[in-house]
Amino acid sequence: MFTRRQREVDRVEHVFGSAVFGSALIGLREGLEAALVVSVLVAYLVKTDRRRELRWVWLGVGIAVALSVGAGALITFTSASLDFRAQEAFGGTMSLIAVVFVTGMVFWMRGAARRIGGELRGRLDEAAGIGPVAVVALAFLAVGREGLETAVFFYAAAQSAGQNGGPLTGFLIGLAIAVALAWAIYRGALSIDLSRFFTVTGVLLVFVAAGVLAYGLHDLQEAALIPGLDVLAFDLSGPVPEDSWYGALLKGVFNYSARTTVVQAIAWSVYVVVTLPLFLRPARTRVAPTQGEVK
């Protein structure tokens, strides 16, 4: 009896731990993007001796965070109030939206990592010239976009990872690390190759997004909106069961499903085969714009 109970405890720990990793990656990636945006705005205002404008930046950031939390709560409560088929349809749709968001985000940040500082400083100058409302709006839009994307993608990833507390724990851990890294960079205590960082995390997120895509399609199949629920591409329940430590790890990180339908397998494969090479292809060399051309 003790051995059986210990195995069950170990299984729960593996599922919990694996769910932490995927969500921690989301929190780290999205949190660092938002934190870097805020640090650029704060550093520029301090450097140009305009500290009085900082309160408006923090107000915009606070509103953006509140909106993001509210959006996440609304999505969760909306899903919980639906019947089974409607819940599956809602979850599947949100998963597809999340994949679109995260795909656009990884491609955008790959190209914007080097020029984002200059663009933000230019926009902050314009906003400060207009007035406090414009500064609040700039900070809100800069952080709010990241927050809304994070809320949608985290919901989809958490749904696919299961109903344990691992996703939230992992997300908070990743977010805390992101804030610490951004603070260290701001204080000059740490130097990070942001281009390489966003490339590596982007590759990992491509696989996470592929898993979310497959899970979302399975939800739509459960809701009878897409056919083929009983047409399996493979069944690895024997060699790679989801309740094993390695199955739980694959499920938590890449949304692995032991019983994968043909639709899921095709979607996962096509997404990875198309998205990954496009993301990793060398960036085109561009002539640096003159000062008058920078917006």
Report the strand count: 2
Radius of gyration: 21 Å
| Order of helical and strand elements | HHHHHHHEHEH
Low-pLDDT sequence parts: 1-17, 287-295
Shape: elongated
User: What's the mean pLDDT score?
Assistant: 78
What would you call the structural class? mainly alpha
Largest sheet: 2 strands, antiparallel
Number of helices: 9
Cα(first) to Cα(last) distance is 68 Å
Which range best describes the helical content: under 10%, 10-25%, 25-40%, 40-55%, 55-70% or over 70%? Answer: over 70%
**What fraction of residues sit in β-strands?**
under 5%
| Number of structurally distinct domains | 1
The largest sheet has its strands arranged as: 1-2
Description:
With 295 residues, this protein is mainly alpha-helical. The protein has one domain (7-283). 77% of the residues lie in helices and 2% in strands. It is built from 9 helices and 2 strands, in the order αααααααβαβα. The protein has helices at 2-47, 54-80, 84-112, 116-130, 132-161, 166-186, 194-222, 245-254, 262-280, and strands at 232-235, 259-261. The protein has a two-stranded antiparallel sheet. α1 (2-47) packs across α7 (194-222) and α1 packs parallel to α8 (245-254). The longest helix has 46 residues, at 2-47. The chain is elongated, with a radius of gyration of 21 Å. The relative contact order is 0.17.
